[in-house]
């Protein structure tokens, strides 16, 4: 298929940039930092895990409300990169600000985390939509997977640096508290994210667009209404989105809640950080493997394989007792988390009209983000009611089962017809 072009490399490199945030702030260091702050404030472990879930849910609710309209506006010439730049900047700035909040102010920490999460998720709407601009349809699978693989590899660098600083602080080898060491990790993450976003800003341009009109907001509302009115024309596409709604909810919930879950099981912070580092290392080659298998057997079949593995993960988590069990669980997650996300993105990109990529990726993200409200909430409520975090993880199995059932009904071969594309055009 040849080497990646400069726009393809620059696009994929944004995964290298923002994945540092994903592991340091969403998954690893910040959840432990927050739980430590909450514990010092007298909040129980189960309750702080629930609050962490609620904060994730609130952030995704904000993005879900904004995504369809902003995505539709971004289909007009020149808007896509502006929106991408705004949200990426929002995420970077508030990640940097996490370092200046006193660690006893746990509510403010959660509030700033919400802003970072909105920035991260909002930028991803337009980043995902740029996939149609940087490559051809026959290369989407490879480029999407390369992005995720680069993200797993790149995120390990600031993560290793951050872990080293924290461990050295724990061992009193350097004259820093663990809290200050964690704050330094947030600064490193923000700078990494901002620096490696530059190639995306310089080399990626909106190739497919709709010409601007005098009132883009009103016209975008009209376009959204037209799309929803003609939803039957997009039956296969929205059927896939419904399946995605369920299974990606489980994926994101396991990702965002894993550190809090391990902490509740009594696994030490240093062990959790090492486990999460190895997850990143293992996930990169497995993401590429899923890409190759997706080309051979189809994206849909490989998404099914990943869902089955996640169902096994949920069952295994219920019986988890020891640190070794957690290691096994983490490695199972590493084998599928990149593949299922990369193949879902490329599969969806092939279904949509390129000139309306932002609008439809707005729907893609709203389905994913609204779903992500349910998962952490389901896990948090179940954990509170049962007093057992393992029961919360087990409850996620229903999301994967529903997702697999609906995905089974999506046609194996979906072609976006000219009639469907015409139904999506803006009335003028």
TrEMBL record:
Domain of life, per lineage: Bacteria
Predominant location: membrane
Assigned GO CC terms: plasma membrane
Gene3D superfamilies named among the record's database cross-references: MFS general substrate transporter like domains
Compartments where located: Cell membrane
Keyword Nucleotide-binding found: no
Protein keywords: Membrane, Transmembrane, Transmembrane helix, Transport
Residue span, Major facilitator superfamily (MFS) profile domain: 1-421
Presence of keyword Membrane: yes
Residues annotated as transmembrane: 12-34, 54-76, 83-101, 107-127, 148-168, 174-198, 233-255, 267-290, 302-320, 326-348, 360-379, 391-410
PANTHER family in the record: AUTOPHAGY-RELATED PROTEIN 22 (PTHR23519)
Name of the protein: MFS transporter
Species whose genome carries this gene: Cytobacillus dafuensis (Bacillus dafuensis)
């Amino acid at each position: 298929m040849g080497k990646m072009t400069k726009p393809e490399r620059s696009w994929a490199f944004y995964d290298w940039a923002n994945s540092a945030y994903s592991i340091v702030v969403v998954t690893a260091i910040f959840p432990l930092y927050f739980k430590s702050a909450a514990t010092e404030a007298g909040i129980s472990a189960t309750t702080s895990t629930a609050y962490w879930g609620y904060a994730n849910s609130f952030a995704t609710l904000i993005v879900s409300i904004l995504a369809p309209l902003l995505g539709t506006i971004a289909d007009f010439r020149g808007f896509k990169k502006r929106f991408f730049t705004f949200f990426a900047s929002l995420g970077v700035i508030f990640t940097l600000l996490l370092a200046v909040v006193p660690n006893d102010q746990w509510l403010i920490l959660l509030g700033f985390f919400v802003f970072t999460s909105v920035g991260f998720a909002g930028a991803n709407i337009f980043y995902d939509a740029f996939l149609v601009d940087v490559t051809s349809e026959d290369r989407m699978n490879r480029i999407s997977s390369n992005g995720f693989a680069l993200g797993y590899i790149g995120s390990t660098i600031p993560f290793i640096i951050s872990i080293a600083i924290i461990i050295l602080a724990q061992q009193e080898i350097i004259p820093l508290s663990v809290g200050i060491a964690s704050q330094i990790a947030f600064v490193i993450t923000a700078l990494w994210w901002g620096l490696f976003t530059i190639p995306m800003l310089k080399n990626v341009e909106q190739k497919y667009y709709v010409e601007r009109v005098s009132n883009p907001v009103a016209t975008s509302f009209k376009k959204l209404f037209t799309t929803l009115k003609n939803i039957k024309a997009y039956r296969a596409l929205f059927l896939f989105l419904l399946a995605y709604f369920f299974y990606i909810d489980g994926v994101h919930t396991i990702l965002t809640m894993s550190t809090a879950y391990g902490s509740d099981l009594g696994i030490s912070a240093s062990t959790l950080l090492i486990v999460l580092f190895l997850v990143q290392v293992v996930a990169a080659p497995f993401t590429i493997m899923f890409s190759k298998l997706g080309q051979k057997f189809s994206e849909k079949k490989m998404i099914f394989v990943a869902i089955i593995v996640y169902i096994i993960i949920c069952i295994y988590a219920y019986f988890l007792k020891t640190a070794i069990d957690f290691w096994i669980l983490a490695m199972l997650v590493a084998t599928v988390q990149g593949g299922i996300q990369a193949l879902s993105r490329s599969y969806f990109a092939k279904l949509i009209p390129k000139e309306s990529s932002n609008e439809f990726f707005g729907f893609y993200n709203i389905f994913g983000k609204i779903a992500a409200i349910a998962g952490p909430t389901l896990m948090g409520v179940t954990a509170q009611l049962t007093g057992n975090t393992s029961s919360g993880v087990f409850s996620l199995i229903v999301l994967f089962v529903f997702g697999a059932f609906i995905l089974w009904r999506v046609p194996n071969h979906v072609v976006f017809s000219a009639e469907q594309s015409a139904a999506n055009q803006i009335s003028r």
